[in-house]
Design goal:
The complex is a heterodimer of chains A (115) and B (116). By secondary structure, chain A is mostly beta strands. Chain A has strands at 4-7, 10-13, 18-25, 31-37, 44-50, 53-57, 64-70, 73-79, 87-94, 105-106, 110-114. Helices cover 0% and strands 51% of the residues of chain B. The chains are: A mainly beta (115), B mainly beta (116).
Chain lengths: 115, 116
């Protein structure tokens, strides 16, 4: 299994809603990532989990809350988002944390719209 | 810190034409890694190739080929006999190893449109 899966594919939410994005991989990868991608821009790193522990938070607002329940799952909890948070949210994984030579495998993303 | 420059924002070619996507990188690290990813309209980034800084061999995979030249800090990507399915945004990216070196530095991407 060489896939990263993400659910849901699309999400529309109001600014007062609470929702979660889910990501799963079964490749035995020990690093998992959340990226945010706005239209016509490259992905921007948000969070990195290394061996199920949060290693990097790229100064992301607290309305985004990541969680790594186990080595295969990664969640992103959303609360009180703003319209400017509308974007494609990509999950990725790589074999070894801190190894720049490991390619990252990306999921199909969740297209989030905040009304 | 690294920097990746993809000067071509958008390219249009007619099907079966060859096309080269340019990538220029800047880094102070002696060991680094370069990547190409494809992002079709569906959104998923698809890994295409990785090249290590100490391996300047060019690579060919089917219709795809990559030319890595340290002398010009370039890692260009050529598609031969382009097809409509090649239409996508292509990102060049760079990474380094070491503690905390998780981040890929992406270029801004080149949108390739292959016209039938």
């Amino acid at each position: 299994d060489t896939e990263v899966t993400q659910t849901p594919k699309h999400l529309v939410m109001g600014m007062t809603n609470k929702k979660s994005l889910k990501c799963e991989q079964h490749m035995g990868h020990r690093a998992m990532y959340w990226y945010k991608q706005k239209a016509k821009k490259p992905p921007e790193l948000m969070f990195v989990y290394s061996y199920e522990k949060l290693s990097i938070n790229e100064s992301v607002p607290s309305r985004f809350s990541p969680e790594c329940p186990n080595s295969s799952l990664l969640n992103l909890h959303l609360h009180a988002l703003q319209p400017e948070d509308s974007a494609l949210y990509l999950c990725a994984s790589s074999q070894e944390p801190g190894a720049g030579y490991n390619e990252q495998f990306f999921g199909p993303g969740t297209r989030l719209t905040v009304l | 810190a690294q920097k990746v420059t993809q000067a071509q924002t958008e390219i249009s070619v007619v099907e079966k034409e060859d096309v080269t996507l340019d990538c220029v990188y800047e880094t102070r690290d002696t060991t680094y890694y370069l990547f190409w990813y494809k992002q079709p309209p569906s959104g998923e980034l698809v890994f295409l190739i990785r090249r290590n800084s100490f391996d300047e061999q060019n690579e060919i995979s089917g219709r795809y080929s990559w030319n890595f030249q340290k002398s010009t800090s370039s890692f260009n990507f050529t598609i031969t006999a382009s097809q409509v399915v090649d239409s996508a945004v292509y990102f060049c990216a760079a990474g380094v190893s070491g503690a905390g070196s998780y981040q890929l530095t992406f270029g801004k991407g080149t949108k390739l449109s292959v016209i039938p």
